[in-house]
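Posting this for the archive.
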Amino acid sequence: MAKLKALPKAIIVGTVVGLLGFGVFKLLPEVKPPATVTVAQDPDADRRAMAIEVNQSRVRAAATVETPPPPSVGETPAQLTPDVPPGTRLPGAGIASGAKTGTNYPMVNDIIKVCSTTIYPLRNVVSTGSLDNISKIYTDSNSQFGIVQEDALALQQRSDPKMMSRIVAVFPFFSVEIHAVVQKNSQIKSLQDMEGKRVAEGPTGSGTIATLQLVKELTGIKWKADPNQLTQAQAVDAVENGLIDVAFIVAGQPIQALSAGINLKLVPIEHPKLDTYKFYTKTQLPTGAYPWQGTPVPTYKVNNVLATFAYKNEFQKEIGDLVTCITKNVGTLQATGHPKWRDVDPLDIDRVTWPVHPAAGAAIKREAKRK
């Protein structure tokens, strides 16, 4: 005690305050990962709760969006909605789609035409694809929905199960096909022939790069990935000009970038390991899918879903309303929208292997009873 008395009053006071602060901190409730879904008190509460689970030291009282866990291989953190100042909350909802030359982008435009309202406007958010869309749903408060391949969901699940426990499906979308395109006179005639060849795998964050990571793992085939991460149109152009040997595009046919191509052919994609992978189904790219395609080509397809964040209390009505609108208008969409709408069965929710948001499932069941 003699030494304590000799200390300056400022140090004693500081010590006491620090001890009191520590005591108060210890009395605060401990944040623990929820068993299922965190109750949301505002539109972004669920996102902040997940960020706390990942790293409590990153909690910021004024934040509306927290930094997500490290991305999986082939993924970069999503960029927020373009041309929107950070922290700005837009009305309505954004749907992360993909490249403008792909299939998802025009199909989201179709949804906007029939379902967007002045009260709840919908926006088409350009992205690099499935992995980017997952990240946007998780981090961007202006991207409430996104189109995602189921194999990309499974790949990201391996890397970040906590993050993926917050991503759920809301609508059973169309399937996308694996396209492998080469020059018309190329000697590459099979997946096995691609060993050691120069291959464009798509941009970082795309569904294509996710699919190809799985294809390489399953088949053991090793090619030389082009480091430039070309877009669909750039990859097709690179094939035509002999800069690369193969361009992969995983998207719903017909793909704009391939329809505009010349001097091209599709490579059959077949392998026993892919036959048994749960997310891939054998299919064919039919004759005439592209102007230069004269015969059907075997390949695989993977299901696409419309996904959202696992909101517990918020956005229940908005999710249900969007799903109901798409389901009711699917006939119009099939008649006037992108050809891939013809493959959409809104009532086939049971084929989705990923967890489905309760509000979306209830909306689809209501529509099924009315038919």
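The CA atoms of residues 267 and 297 lie 7 Å apart. Strands lie at 93-96, 122-125, 145-149, 167-183, 198-200, 224-225, 246-251, 264-266, 281-285, 297-309.
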